[in-house]
Amino acid sequence: MTSPSSSLTKRQSNIRRLLKPRHVCIIGGQAMTDAIARCDAAGFTGEVWVVNPKYETLGGRKCYPSVAALPEAPDATFIAVPREATIEMLKELNARGAGGAICYAAGFAEVGGEGVELQRQLIAAAGDLAVVGPNCYGILNYLDGIILWPAGHNGHKVETGCALVAQSGNIALNLTYNDRSVPFAYVITSGNQVVLNVADFVDALAEDPKVTAIGLYIEAISDVPAFSRAAAKALENGKPLVALKAGKSELGSALAMSHTSSLAGSDRMYDALFDRLGVIRVNSVPDLLETMKFISIAGLPKGDSLAVFTCSGGDGLMTADLAEEVGLTLQPHAPDQVTDLKAQLPNFASVTNPLDYNTSLWGHEDLLTKCFGTVMRGDYDAGMLIIDYAVDGETALKACNASVNALIAACLAHGKMPIVTATLPELLPAPARAMMAPHHAAPMQGLPEAIRAFAAAARFARQRDRLTKGSADDLVMPATPVLEGKTRIVSERDAKLALAAHGLQVPESRVVAPADAARAAAELGFPVVVKVAAPVIAHKTEAGAVAVNLKSAAEVEAAVAGMQKSVAAYQPGLEIELVLVEAMVRDVVAELIVGIKRDPQFGLALIVGAGGILVEMVEDSALLLLPTKRAVVEEAVRGLKIAKLLRGYRGKPAGDIGAVVDAVMAVAAYAEAQRDNLVELDVNPLMVLPKGAVAVDALIVQADR
Question: What pTM was estimated for this model as a whole?
Fold first, then answer.
């Protein structure tokens, strides 16, 4: 995989100074006294300077009267003064050649009014500074003990760990107080993102060898191409991105001329972007924390084959259900393993996966190690022990620890990944978690979260291998201009000709005056389809502007006469000028839709799914962002529900999947060629035949320039 350019802009270099500074500066008043002390307590060995012209000392540190008076330009600065003064401080820092600055003050564009102008001034004052915020909490660097943060926190120094980048300062603050042993290396709040955005932080963190994973709490991605470049870099460098995207509600489409618009909602765009880039998407804060912890402590599994151990039949049943939900197959033990396990367990034991080893072995570490080892010698990638420390007393605690020690020993002996999980977060206490982590045994808190984290990590490992085989450019989203102003609908005939030039198969046709429709039909051969060609009508079916399976000249003439009446009723005063006569496509296996939707944030999105009258009835579709590859399109087509028909359902003929993929790639090629002016496109339906796939209807909307 080819890396993006390694050359850094001045601001990118300053981000790296900000995240790993040699010296820090705090600009503020008495409210920052505790923050100054926390820098010292965290173990930062560099210089800590304080700027305040009113005091001689703050927090036990000498105060400098101005930025200009500092010994040298600070790498990282926390600015805790009112918003107007913040802008002046940025000007001074930029003039001094500082690295980066965190703007704590609020009251900028997020409040509207004069805040919008103040934010513009802040951007201008920033210059080359790497500016975080405004309206943010700041940065915690637990690798180097750097606390540029206005309030309390509950992290501690680590050697390696995950990074969290959050658009919400309060959520980031709360997550530092988690009781889940998540090893945070960095916690970064991005605030209003007026200078630095999430992509900038991901780009820098992807280079840090001590960062194990990058967690994201995001409400929106402001620059999709930049995010895709950073995510591709993280993928190449082996840094999994774990994203919690808030706000799933669909906003609807301003342009709804096609079915494609209704299928391409905002949240589906994020799903498509994350799938493209190998980003692990989670749906809750516990899943975000547990997945980051899993990857940071245990790493990535070699595969998704999981063996599960429990002392409870109920736990086993729940695990089986959860595994099925995420697509994990808990494969049975091999015959020789079954024989050995039956010899070790009571005759009433059921030797399955999950394995209920029951209480006969409880507390006997040697017997448990032998039992677990019998399983882990098999074709499994990881072993998961479900155990709840819901007990009191030293004896019970030792028994729990015996099971954990046995799992770790068995997994390490056979080169497998150990995972320990409690059914509830509070049933795996901190001392037990601390015992597991040094052995790279992920101490998971919550059975559903544990299963989802393992499945996500295994899926990421597979995706990474596939996605990093090509060039990083294949993953990066190109910039797509936002179109404003009027649009125009291309006639169906012209749309089909344009698509055919890129390889799409279309029916033989004629465009003629209404009086010549019967003659044109006879030339093509019956049966035929007749549609209104001019004037251009976007929704022909609703207007009564299409007739199918016409088998004679008389039927064609009657259909055209009926269309005249229907069109006039649909829009008074409208008269048919031209009709499109096409050869009827027969022997259809299935009908698909292939569409393109232009999105101001994500660029061009491609939809492929069940078409015809099924479009919105069954909602069976896949969404891909352009550009895309043939292999990705084929995987999407084969993953549709309607693919059962394409494979030949109940003795019916199979459809030509290769021709379907050809058709989709032809539409994608046209869209790429028209990236600067294509608004939306619908091929619906694409008739799939035993041999071939034919587009019998096409709608193209372009910018009217």
Answer: 0.91
